[in-house]
């Protein structure tokens, strides 16, 4: 019997301590909360991969629990540019991923169309770009099922007046943009409505195992530490969630999460963390997704996302000492590369101030080893995904790892994982995500005659209150509504947000108020500091003045409280 969170069969100690499955809901764990639950399957990870699996399994009729140590979309899924790929970017370098992106682009337009803006995409070649790449790209696109449409330079410039005037050729492809934040929460709310449980602030510290394999997880509220607290004689024990199948969907941390079940499990997950830096410009300067017609490189994508434009991205493999859970730092050199390359494509960007810069971690699947044992990483790594049933690789039964892929392909990834889960459970339950539409989230009201929560983005206070009532924290509510994501980057709206949160009794709700001034102050200050952290990386011109003003307001008021930097770091990486 394993010493690693050992338990017997499902009738054992762990199962005996587990409360019956409750009605669905979202619960945020504090450091002293203990979870006791059981389900058909557990999903670890609240990014698009894990949430996609949650949605897939719920639609198959399974009882599902998702655990996430931060909140929904706080890692890779919250730090991307919002591009729904047509597959054209990978046509030459990764034909299988290109074809899959095209298929999933079409499926998502059918089931998630309300979250997609059909901007279209343009691939543009300048005089310095290799013409032989254009020929290879066109051939590869056709093999993947794409039909790029050639545009004349005149037609291209009518569509995108800010483009460089010396363009040589341009092709239209069916790229789009997708509102990932609203999509993720809509999937969570739909799954919860069907009975799923979602635990946030819940860190998996170990697996429950028996002679047959993995049988669940041990979960601690984030912040739990050994030793007495609040006068207790002993620390709070981690809770337990029991299920015959566990899906590891932790993205860049998939290898480490698998390794909790033993070195064989970790070694079966060839995933590398890759850093990508993006820069947000404070205007929508392009109407379509623009990409350079050349081999994928740094700073060669511009994405119109709501009222802003996102430029990116870089690709830097992270070494063992650089891949912790802390916020990734963005260097001035990385920002300079992205801005320089973006302006080569759209010179008029020099009239638009950068709003902020941010970085995320990609989970890249390493290629097959060379004869020397080297696996290609970075831009040489594949953009496909891996699905590992660890029992087939010498690891424990009952554990599956799903990693890699693209936001565009999350549904297909979840379908593949769902097929394996149902096979392991001995259940016949076909995938339904191809035909079931994703429910619409709460819409922003058009009537702005009442109080505003955010003046830059014109978000009504009553809409913000409704989002908080659903259980969102401030960062989640901001992502869904764009509160604090406008020109002031939360510098001016934070006091107003704090007032709204106090009026509804946050961290409670209007139905069950329990206003906590300390919690509200910590939440709003961490949010403000997180926004300013992104602004400081582009602190020249307008943004330098904004940073100086924010710091002056700090000195004139209460100033940042103790632990502000730590709180901001825990806020996660999020983009626009």
Give structural notes:
By secondary structure, the protein is an alpha/beta fold. The chain folds into 3 domains: 13-75 and 182-224 and 238-269 and 384-425, FAD/NAD(P)-binding domain; 115-177 and 272-363, 2-Layer Sandwich (D-Amino Acid Oxidase, Chain A, domain 2), CATH 3.30.9; 452-570, no CATH class. It has 16 helices and 25 strands. The strands form 5 sheets. Strands 7, 8, 9, 16, 17, 18, 19, 20 and 21 form a 9-stranded mixed β-sheet that branches. The protein has a 7-stranded mixed β-sheet with strand order 1-11-4-3-15-23-22. Strand 12 (202-210) and strand 13 form a beta hairpin. It is globular.
Which key phrases capture this entry?
25 strands; alpha/beta; 576 residues; 9-stranded mixed β-sheet; D-Amino Acid Oxidase, Chain A, domain 2; 16 helices; FAD/NAD(P)-binding domain
What is this structure, in a nutshell?
The protein is of the alpha/beta class and 576 residues long. Helix 3 (95-111) crosses helix 4.
Q: Name the structural class.
A: alpha/beta
Q: Which CATH top level class of the largest domain fits?
A: Alpha Beta
Averaged pLDDT: 88
Unreliable segments of 5+ consecutive residues: 8-21, 224-234, 368-375, 560-574
Query: According to CATH, what is the topology of the largest domain?
Result: FAD/NAD(P)-binding domain
Largest sheet: 9 strands, mixed
Strand-residue proportion: 15-25%
Number of domains: 3
Total beta-strand segments: 25
Query: What's the architecture of the largest domain, going by CATH?
Result: 3-Layer(bba) Sandwich
Helix content: 25-40%
Radius of gyration: 24 Å
Number of helices: 16
> What name goes with the CATH superfamily of the largest domain?
FAD/NAD(P)-binding domain
Shape: globular
Question: Span from first to last CA?
Answer: 48 Å
